[in-house]
Design a protein that fits this description.
It comes from Penicillium concentricum. This is N-acetyltransferase domain-containing protein. Belongs to the acetyltransferase family. GNAT subfamily. Keywords: Acyltransferase, Transferase. It contains eight helices and nine strands. The protein is an alpha+beta fold. Helix 1 crosses helix 3 and helix 4 packs antiparallel against helix 8. The radius of gyration is 18 Å and the shape is globular.
C-alpha cells in the first residue's frame, strides 16, 4: 500500500516505519529461522525474491506494512519524539525488531451467500527471542491499530481503488450510499488475527486488547481466529495509556527508495 510510504509512527515504546528496500537484508536473515517460517507459515525465499516481495507489498492495495524498530527516545515516559530526532539511523538494521501487517479482504461467508464485509487481518512478528516479552509487540499493535482507525477512509480508498475489488462488490459494500466517492459508505467491519493454538502469549496479548475468539475450537490448521469489532479511537487511546505508550505521533518519513 502506498498510503504509508512517507509516514513513520513514533512513541516512547517503538518506532514503525514503512517496509523499504534497506530493511530487506535484515528481514531476509530473520526469515531463514525455521521457527519463524513455521510461525508465519512462510517458505524460505532467496534475497532477490525477498526484494521482489518488498516491492510487491509496497504496491499492493490490500496490504499495509510497517517495520517495527526500537523507539528513538531515551526511554523516559514523557519523552515525545520529534521530527528532529527521526534520522536515517533511526530504522537501521540494528534497530529492527519485527514487522506488522494488515491484509484487507472481502468476507462474504463460507458459502459466499452473506452480505460482503471488509475485514482487516493483522499479522505481528517480533522476530528474535531477545526482543520478545519487552513490550514491542503490544506497543506496535496499539500504534498500528490507532493508525488504521484514524486513516480508515484513506485505507479503504486505496483498497477498493486498486483494481482487485469488482464494481458490483463495491456497490454492495456501500451500505446504501449512492455515490462514486471511493470510501464513502464503506467501513472496516472488524480487525482479525489468526493465532496457533499453542501460542498462548499471542492469544493473551490480543484477547487482552479486546479481540474475541470466533469459535471455541481451532480450525483445521490448528489456529484460532480472533476478531475485534470495536474500532473506536477512544478505546485504543485508553489502551495506549494503559500500556504506558506515550507521545504517539505520526511524522514524515523522508527516506526514499
Amino acid at each position: 500500500m502506498l498510503l504509508n510510504a512517507n509516514i513513520a509512527l513514533c512513541s516512547s515504546k517503538a518506532l514503525l516505519v514503512p517496509y523499504s528496500s534497506w530493511h530487506v537484508p535484515r528481514y531476509h536473515e530473520w526469515m531463514k529461522d525455521p521457527e519463524i517460517q513455521e510461525a508465519t507459515a512462510s517458505e524460505p525465499l532467496t534475497l532477490e525474491e525477498e526484494y521482489s516481495m518488498q516491492r510487491s507489498w509496497r504496491q499492493d492495495a490490500d496490504k499495509l506494512t510497517f517495520i517495527v524498530c526500537r523507539a528513538i527516545t531515551t526511554g523516559a515516559e514523557d519523552d515525545i519524539p520529534s521530527q528532529a530526532e527521526l534520522q536515517a539511523e533511526s530504522d537501521s538494521p540494528a534497530t529492527m525488531v519485527g514487522d506488522i501487517n494488515l491484509f484487507l479482504r472481502i468476507d462474504d461467508g463460507e458459502e459466499g451467500d452473506s452480505p460482503p464485509q471488509i475485514v482487516g487481518e493483522i499479522e505481528l512478528m517480533i522476530a528474535e527471542k531477545v526482543n520478545q516479552r519487552r513490550g514491542f509487540g503490544r506497543a506496535a499493535l496499539l500504534m498500528f491499530m490507532r493508525y488504521i482507525i484514524q486513516n480508515q477512509g484513506a485505507i479503504l480508498d486505496e483498497f477498493v481503488g486498486g483494481g482487485d475489488v469488482d464494481v458490483e462488490t463495491v456497490r454492495k459494500l456501500r451500505t446504501g450510499v449512492e455515490t462514486a466517492a471511493s470510501s464513502e459508505g464503506l467501513t472496516l467491519e472488524c480487525l482479525s488475527v489468526k493465532i496457533g493454538q499453542a501460542n498462548l502469549r499471542s492469544l493473551a496479548l490480543f484477547e487482552g486488547l479486546g479481540f474475541e475468539r470466533v469459535s471455541a475450537e481451532p480450525n483445521f490448521f490448528g489456529e484460532f481466529e480472533l476478531r475485534k469489532a470495536d474500532l473506536s479511537l477512544g478505546g485504543v487511546d485508553a489502551a495506549l495509556e494503559g500500556a504506558k505508550v506515550r507521545g504517539f505521533i505520526a511524522l514524515p518519513y523522508e527516506r526514499t527508495e
